[in-house]
Amino acid sequence: MILYFSGTGNSEFLAEELGKILEDSILNLFDFIKENRITDFYSDKPFILIAPTYSWRLPRFISNYLGKCKFSGSSDIYVILNFGDSFGNAEIYLKKDIEKLGLNFRGLYGIKMPENYLMLFDLDNDEKNREIVLKSKDKLNKISEYIKNNEDFPKNNSGFIGKFESGLINPLFFKFIVKDKKFYYSKKCIKCGLCEKVCVLNNISYENGYPKWNGNCTHCAACICKCPASAIEYGNKTLGKKRYLLKNLFNK
């Protein structure tokens, strides 16, 4: 069973493609997390978790949610993280989280995917992003061979920089940067209500039909990128920037 979470489509694409290669089922964790639906995940095959990298580690809300659940059937789990620049030293923290679940950690494999963190970075053009997405298929074929052969993923050597990113910068980044105070809606808002629906942490409510952010944000970029009117902004960082959704790269 392939479990995944995706804010703007990167992890969803990887899960769907890997599911085809392995002929395995895929399960979107979004509703489970949003509804705090605690469950017992069962799989005859090894579990595979596919998720984005948030500040060089697995997103906290995913590890927190999975920590409440049970896993039965297979005792093995592989983890695939997609990243914009690197996944740092995420492996050491993942291993600890997985061991708490009572599962056998078979390793972490990182795949570069298009950058979507427009609240901080400039994004690549569509042509470059399509190239990155297509290259990810080669990585998935390699990944599938390890899983089919019941082999661990190769060990990752993060080096000093990776350890610094995941160990020191990550907690500081979430403490000081990952806030929702800079989010706001513009006059383009059409009061459609979609931003509340796509917020996995239920952080968006409404006042007079307009969105309001309530202080529990993880910067997944779903609200700002999925707004059909491009009406959500983040301070001055996102003004004039094109939003990113993977599906839009190939719907032309």
* Helix-strand category: alpha/beta
Quickly give the CATH architecture of the largest domain. 3-Layer(aba) Sandwich
The count of β-strands is 11
What's the shape? Answer: globular
Low-confidence stretches: none
Sheet with the most strands, sense and barrel status: 5 strands, parallel
Listing every helix as H and every strand as E from the N terminus to the C terminus, the arrangement reads EHEHEEHEEHEHHEHEEHEH
CATH topology of the largest domain: Rossmann fold
Provide the gyration radius in Å. Answer: 18 Å
Number of helices: 9
Can you give the helix content as a percent range? 25-40%
- In angstroms, what separates the terminal alpha carbons? 32 Å
Number of domains: 2
Bin the strand percentage. Answer: 15-25%
The average pLDDT is: 96
CATH class of the largest domain: Alpha Beta
Major sheet strand order: 2-1-4-6-7
Protein name: EFR1 family ferrodoxin
GO molecular function, one term: oxidoreductase activity, acting on NAD(P)H
InterPro entries: 4Fe4S_Fe-S-bd (IPR017896), EFR1-like (IPR047964), Flavodoxin/NO_synth (IPR008254), Flavoprotein-like_sf (IPR029039)
Could you characterize what this model shows?
The chain has 252 residues and is of the alpha/beta class. It folds into two domains: 2-173, Rossmann fold (3-Layer(aba) Sandwich); 183-249, Alpha-Beta Plaits, CATH 3.30.70.20. It is built from nine helices and eleven strands. It has helices spanning 10-22, 30-34, 60-66, 90-100, 126-148, 159-176, 194-197, 222-226, 246-249; strands at residues 2-4, 26-28, 40-43, 47-52, 70-73, 76-83, 104-112, 183-185, 204-207, 210-213, 232-234. The strands form four sheets. A five-stranded parallel sheet has the order 2-1-4-6-7, with helices on both faces. Strand 9 (204-207) and strand 10 form a beta hairpin. The longest helix has 23 residues, at 126-148.
